[in-house]
Write a structure and sequence with these properties.
alpha/beta, Rossmann fold, binds flavin mononucleotide, NADPH-dependent FMN reductase, NAD(P)H-dep_reductase
Amino acid sequence: MNIVALVGSIRKESYNMQIAKIMQERYKDKMNIKIADIRSLPHFDQDEELDPPSVVKDFKQEILSADGIIIVTPEYNWSISGVLKNALDWASRGKRVFMKKPVMPLGASSGMVGTLRAQTHLRQILSAPGIQANVLSPGGNEVLINFVQQKIEENGQLDEDTLTFLDSVIEKFVDLVKSN
Ligand SMILES: Cc1cc2nc3c(=O)[nH]c(=O)nc-3n(C[C@H](O)[C@H](O)[C@H](O)COP(=O)(O)O)c2cc1C
């Protein structure tokens, strides 16, 4: 199973990136997770949407070829980050590469509600006409990692409770991808 992960934070020590890497390693027997380079995408420009720069074409092809997408989002001012929105905007125009694609959203923040507002907003974006992804249903599947600075341990691993929950949601995501 080939999965592409989009990580909405590009800072070096990003917790969300650390979580994507933990997942890459932990679920390697179930899926191959490739983390997309969304930092290199230029700002979305509608003048270029039908013939975008090659880095955008490559990114869109990666999404199109993937069996499913994992989106690990931080919360920036009650929403997703600009860098993630930019990637989604490119993906939504010209060839709509997210159409019916299975998506698992999750995220980590330093605040109390653990990206709830960002993920709610993300789900809304993923239902837009240019995207129409097949998003894992929220019931029982919302991975909202709050106070993340306390949950990533010194060895770089997530705490056991979070990992156990993540394991259960990944199983549902695998089912979604297989049934797609
Ligand atoms: C521009 C900006 C806005 C933020 N807004 C929120 C917010 O609305 N809610 C929240 O819980 N945390 C917010 N934070 C704190 C982030 O949750 C925290 O910086 C987190 O570590 C970011 O994810 P990262 O570690 O993957 O970079 C914000 C951080 C930044 C830089």
